[in-house]
Every structure is written in structure tokens, then in C-alpha cells.
Amino acid sequence: MRIDLTGRTALVTGSTQGIGRAIATTLADAGARVAVNGRRGDTVETVIAELRAENPDRDLIAAAGDVTTPAGTDTVLAATGDIDILVNNLGIFGATPAMDITDDEWRRYFDVNVLAAVRLIRATLPGMMERGWGRVLDIASDSAVVIPAEMIHYGMSKTALLAVSRGFAKEAAGTGVTVNSVLAGPTHTGGVEDFVYSLVDPNLPWDEAQREFMRLHRPQSLLQRLIEPEEIANMVAYLASPLASATTGAAVRVDGGYIDSIVP
């Protein structure tokens, strides 16, 4: 089974680091023309140079801009052109006691994690439907289902993203366009190692440390280790491909069994 995205253009928001960067890399390696997005143009150019140094055959374009604003979204879309694969990866998170979350913070999490995705879907879905092919993928989280007590505003936003994905899948019904969300579990991204070592013995080798962290602090995980960004990117690449043509309106789990349920 070979994933071939040759001839397709993908936009991955928030793709200068972490899961977004892994997704952009994997889609490019599958043959897609990939727009790398971040707020700062110099950061985007640096990442593109690094990715091309690893593989000169990667077809990458710079799409710098803040997609949490209408003006920034227009700038990104103008740089990208017609989009066949939209990956709404951009998101923010942070721990705040439930009673201390202000109105402004509730709105900020909704604006960044939900409304930015909605705005991009509204802008790109009609063209996909007209062309008879397209993929929209919203990167959600296990927190959409297992609401974390320390950041319920983040969980709320990811739950909303599941509803957004399902609703737009209905809008695209019968057109050849699929809309899905991806439930990512605890992932090894920037800063996570410091976080892990703040909770376990700092003298442990990394593999042992992360397993101890999962055992003590994320015992629901059946994987019993952090997920690597590339593992999430592999699922995204599959869902973005023609091979996943019968999967739409779904919340697909890449959570290492973290969500204690036998259904999505």
C-alpha cells in the first residue's frame, strides 16, 4: 500500500514545529506540494530550508500569516492557491484552574482552536467540492473526550472541533470531499521532555523516563509511552490520501489507547 499525493496541494497550519512540522514533512514525502505555515516569515523560511536540506525533492512553499485573523488567513490563502488538503493543526493549550479561566481566555481558546479552523474550511471547502475531491483534517486531542480538569477550556475547544468536523462532513456529503478529525494522544513534542523530567527521576534515560511518566501520570495509555509526532503524521497522510475515500465525518484515534473506550 503506497500513499501517493502527487499533484495535490496541502496547507498545514502551525507547521513550523511539533506535530504540524511532522505532518508537513510526511505529506511532502508522499508527493504533495505543501504550504508551511507560521506567523513569522523568517521562521517559515528557516523551516523550509531545513526540510529541503533533508530532502531536496520536497515541494514546499512559504505561507506565513496569522490564521487566527481574517487578514492573516487571506494572506496565507493567497500564498497557497487552490488547496486540496487542509490540515487544521494550529492550537494552543495551557493549564489554568477551572474557576480562574476568564471570559477573555474562553474566547481566545475558541478563536484560536476552533474559529480559525472554521474560517479556513469555509474558504477552501467550496473549491474542493466543485473540483470533486478534497480532504479536510482537524487535529483534535484525547482531551476532546477525556476533559482535563486542569485545562477544561482546551478540552472544550477540542470537543467543539469534533462537532465542526462532523458538521462540515455533512455539508460535503456526496461530493468526493471528506472531512475528519484526528484524536491525538499524549505526544513527544517540544518542551515535553523537560515537563516529564520535572515529574520523574531526572537521572533516568529518556525511554525509561517517559515510560515512568506514563505509568504514574497517564496510566490510561495502553501504549505506555509518548506518541511520536511522525506517528500522528502517518495517520494524517493516510486520511489525506485516496485510500481513505470511505472515511468521513469520523473522529479517528491516534491516542495509544489513552481514551478508555472501544468506540471512537
Strand order of the largest sheet: 3-2-1-4-5-6-7
Task: Tell how many strands the DSSP assignment holds.
Answer: 7
Helix content: 40-55%
Mean of pLDDT = 96
| Rg from alpha-carbon coordinates | 18 Å
Instruction: Show unreliable segments.
Output: none
Helical element count? Answer: 8
SS-derived structural category: alpha/beta
Hey, roughly how much beta strand do the residues contain? 5-15%
Short descriptors:
8 helices; alpha/beta; 14% strand; 264 residues; single chain
Q: How would you describe this protein?
A:
The structure is a single chain. The chain is built from 8 helices and 7 strands. With 264 residues, it is α/β, with parallel strands linked by helices. It has a 7-stranded parallel sheet, with helices on both faces.
Layout of strands and helices, then pairs:
Elements: E1 9-12, H1 18-29, E2 33-36, H2 41-54, E3 59-62, H3 70-80, E4 85-88, H4 103-131, E5 134-141, H5 152-171, E6 177-184, H6 192-197, H7 206-217, H8 229-239, E7 251-254
Parallel strand pairs: 1-2, 1-4, 2-3, 4-5, 5-6, 6-7
Helix pairs in contact: 1-8, 4-5
Summarize the structure.
A 7-stranded parallel beta sheet has the order 3-2-1-4-5-6-7, with helices on both faces. Helices cover 44% and strands 14% of the residues.
